[in-house]
Amino acid sequence: MGSEMAQRLEANAGTLSPRARLVVMRMAWTVLDPSRPSKREPCLYFGGWEHLALLFPDLAPLSAKRAVLRALTEAEAAGYIKREGHAHRRSRQVYRLTY
After folding, report:
1. Rounded to an integer, what distance in angstroms lies between the CA atom of residue 13 and that of residue 80?
2. Which long-range contacts (CB under 8 A, 24 or more apart) does 63-68 make?
3. CA angle, corner 7, sides to 33 and 98, nearest 5?
4. Which strand (E) or helix (H) includes residue 75?
5. Is 58 left (phi over 0), alpha (psi -120 to 50) or beta?
6. 6 or 83: whose pLDDT is higher?
């Protein structure tokens, strides 16, 4: 899972801040690679911010959530991820890795 996407990110993530790069790298290792056959759609991350906040154990939970949301905003502005649909009250935001 995700080794192909992680290699792509490693080669192209020079413009991201260290936190944003770490968050997108975690997302890359979680998604399915496009070259692997599967019933699920590849390159989609739907693990939620909680999974990404585990990258920052030294931060309080609210601070970790803010750090993740800032990193996601930066990665989206840089074109590494794209939102798919909208998050609702009981559903998570889904992101497509685009690099």
Report:
1. 8
2. 67/19, 68/23
3. 60
4. helix 61-78
5. alpha
6. 83
Copy the structure tokens of residue 91.
């559903």
Percentage of the chain exceeding pLDDT 90: 46
Q: What pLDDT shows up at residue 1?
A: 58
The contacts of residue 39 (CB under 8 Å, 6+ apart) are: none
Q: Are 61 and 68 in contact (CB under 8 A)?
A: no
- Could you identify the residue written with the tokens 């585990």? 54
Report the alpha-carbon distance of residue 71 to residue 63 in Å, rounded: 12
Q: Where do the domains of the chain lie, and which CATH numbers do they carry? A: 3-97 (1.10.10)
pLDDT digits (tens, 9 = 90+) for 35-76: 776 667 778 898 888 999 999 999 999 999 999 999 999 999
47 vs 41: CA distance, rounded Å: 14
pTM (2 d.p.): 0.84
